[in-house]
Amino acid sequence: MSVDVTIPTGNREDEIQIYDLHKSFGDLEVLKGIDLVVHRGEVVCVIGPSGSGKSTLLRCVNLLEQPTKGRIFILNDEITDPDADVDHLRTLMGMVFQSFNLFPHLTALENCSIALTQVLKKSAAEAKAIALENLHKVGLGDRSDSYPLKLSGGQQQRVAIARALSMDPELMLFDEPTSALDPELVGDVLSVMRDLAAGGMTMMVVTHEMAFAREVADRVIFMDGGVIVEQGTPEEVIGNPKEERTRTFLARVLDPTHVHTPDDEMPPTGASAHEKPVVPPVHRPNIFGH
Description:
The protein is of the alpha/beta class and 290 residues long. The chain contains nine helices and ten strands. The strands form two sheets. It has a six-stranded mixed beta sheet with strand order 6-7-8-3-9-10, with helices on both faces. α3 (108-118) runs parallel beside α5 and α4 (124-137) packs across α5 (153-166). The relative contact order is 0.14.
């Protein structure tokens, strides 16, 4: 799905602007012309099957992957410009990965403060105060002196979020932050992300957590085959998807124990070929505790 916008929009409320983005790895074209604008304070969840280009899209935003073609603007500064100050623009974006990427020889506090002293050139005392504040924000103020190996996976991921927040970013990028966690640890990480969203943080989240996307996202984007197939509110995309491919994906994700047959792809007997098969509601535990 494309958007008809001026390049760049000129609106500082448009924190991420992506135009005709393509990315190939050799002969494999992973992104095939993505157009997307993320507004300030908006939470955008990107869903889709493995190999659809979700993580590649996110990694192109902060130039961890170099686009093959296209332009990306962060707060109206083009990060894809050959003369761009990429390091500066990256300081505006916090990034949280699937793996925690913590320094094992540093404590939680040191993991969160090292970039403040080394990159932002803050004093050790100021860096410590900022890092400790953000560890408290993710519920780990009492574990500041713990090394990563003494923390659970969920706690390590929360430290990673605190580390990103310590750089005082304008927006946050999350690349499937719960996919490496045991199921019982997922809720704590999602709770922190939910609090960030409630506080107005701009967030672009690649996720397979449909309950989180339904509750927290302002907009859900469904990708498949390197393109945006469908986007809209959670109610539109998850609750009442328009595209057949979206409906098939959600049926498999929301009801993973169902044995799918070719008949699942067909309209009910006697129904028009244009009628949508109904995706049954799935009762899932409320991971947010309310």
